[in-house]
């Protein structure tokens, strides 16, 4: 899978072009009807099983990397591991700017980004900032697209599927 990922990203970069000068990171809580080792209690869904997917995208919304954590995880501690997924891309632009929402507004986050040589644009806690006024829309749109494809929530088991139709029921 790592080799396939490198081939696909390389081809995309040659044909269309990765827009790495601006990247956006955000976490998104999703259902985990099949549970699994990583699933945890979802604060957004009455304590049902869920996962948090922390994703980094380029300026156009192309997913560059993602990690999964229990649904009740805070976004900020997942930032380092999410940024580590960029290692597969090799050398990054010198002036790469990472756009983050209010959940990342802390000195610790700014220090982590500075240590990596990354600039940041972080929405401030307590101040209203419409999504359209920021460059975070790309990650929000990508997360929304991922969540709309509910058939990806639960892979059918090797013994014949997870429901009578062979795919999970829509929720």
Terminal-residue CA separation: 30 Å
State the CATH class.
Alpha Beta
CATH architecture annotation name: 2-Layer Sandwich
Q: What is the succession of H and E elements? A: HEEEEHEHEH
**What share of the residues lie within helices?**
10-25%
* Secondary structure: number of strands: 6
pLDDT averaged over residues: 79
Overall radius of gyration: 17 Å
The number of helical elements comes to 4
Poorly predicted ranges: 151-171
How many strands, which pairing sense, and closed or not: the largest β-sheet?
6 strands, mixed
| Strand residue percentage | 15-25%
What is the CATH topology descriptor?
Nucleotidyltransferase, domain 5
Shape: globular
The domain count comes to 1
In short:
By secondary structure, this protein is of the alpha/beta class.
Any overview of this molecule?
The chain has about 170 residues and is an alpha/beta fold. It has a single domain (about 20-150), classed as Nucleotidyltransferase, domain 5 (2-Layer Sandwich). It is built from four helices and six strands; from the N terminus they run αββββαβαβα. It has helices at about 1-15, 80-85, 105-115, 135-150, and strands at about 20-30, 40, 50-60, 65-70, 95-100, 120. Strand 3 (about 50-60) and strand 4 (about 65-70) form a beta hairpin. The chain is globular. Residues about 150-170 have low confidence and may be disordered.
């Amino acid at each position: 899978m790592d080799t396939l990922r490198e081939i696909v990203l390389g081809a995309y970069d040659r044909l269309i072009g990765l827009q790495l000068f601006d990247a956006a990171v955000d976490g998104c809580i999703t259902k985990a009807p099949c549970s699994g080792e990583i699933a945890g209690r979802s604060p957004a869904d009455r304590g049902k099983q869920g996962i948090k997917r922390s994703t980094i995208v380029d300026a156009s919304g192309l997913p560059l990397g993602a990690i999964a954590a229990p649904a009740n995880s805070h976004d900020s501690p997942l930032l380092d591991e999410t940024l580590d997924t960029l290692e597969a891309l090799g050398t990054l632009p010198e002036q790469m700017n990472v756009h983050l929402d209010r959940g990342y507004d802390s000195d610790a986050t700014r220090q982590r980004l500075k240590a990596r040589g990354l600039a940041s644009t972080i929405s401030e806690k307590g101040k209203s900032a419409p999504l359209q006024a920021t460059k975070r829309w790309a990650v929000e749109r990508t997360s929304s697209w991922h969540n709309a494809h509910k058939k990806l929530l639960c892979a059918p088991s090797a013994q014949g599927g997870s429901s009578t139709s062979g795919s999970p029921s829509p929720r």
